[in-house]
Amino acid sequence: MAMKRCNKGHFYDSDKYTNCPYCGVNNLDVQGSMDRGNTQKAEQEFATVPMHNSVINNRNVGEPGETVGIFQQKIGIDPVVGWLVCVKGSVRGQDYPIRSEKNSIGRSATMDICISSDDYISRENHAFIVFNPKTRAFRVQTGESRGLVYLNNEEVLTHSDLKAYDMIEIGQTKLIFMPLCGVNFEWV
Q1: What are the pLDDT tens digits along the chain (188 aa)?
Q2: Range of the domain at 109
Q3: Together in a domain, 64 and 84
Q4: Does any domain span residue 187?
Q5: DSSP characters for 27-55?
Q6: Domains: count for the chain
């Protein structure tokens, strides 16, 4: 695994991705995405793309046997649905994009949200941020580690719903939650 750092500070596996998968899609027309006609056109165009060995949003999509997310399947990209921003800890000011469905948090570079500098965070699956594209709801849930997760200073025992500006504490890191998708906006 050859780790590389993009100009925005994200680390990614350069053997797997040609560009930073966290920075999103260049020249994405969000306003046009909100127009159903454009979405239908994109869905029709995407339907003609072979599902094996295609690269979308710098992520390999549709490899034989690979599970892909709902948004990824429908519109051809794995778009950002929200963010976590570190407000306290060793990576203060760093942002972490949240993608649709389940996002793992840990210190390992294989995690969707990698906070490698906090030794109080488990390497893998300390917690999860989940976005349900059907209900357009976010939640935080505990992972497989023995470390605790707090939401607005309350212990999360299994899972808790998230709303804008909620504070998540993992290890010695505090993150503020900022949604993009919800009642006012959705990708599909």
Answers
A1: 677 777 777 777 777 777 777 776 554 444 444 444 444 444 444 443 333 333 333 344 455 566 666 666 666 778 999 999 999 999 999 999 999 999 999 999 999 999 999 999 999 999 999 999 889 999 999 999 899 999 999 999 999 999 999 999 999 999 999 999 988 888 87
A2: 80-179
A3: no
A4: no
A5: T--HHHHTSHHHHHHHHHHHHTS-SSSEE
A6: 2
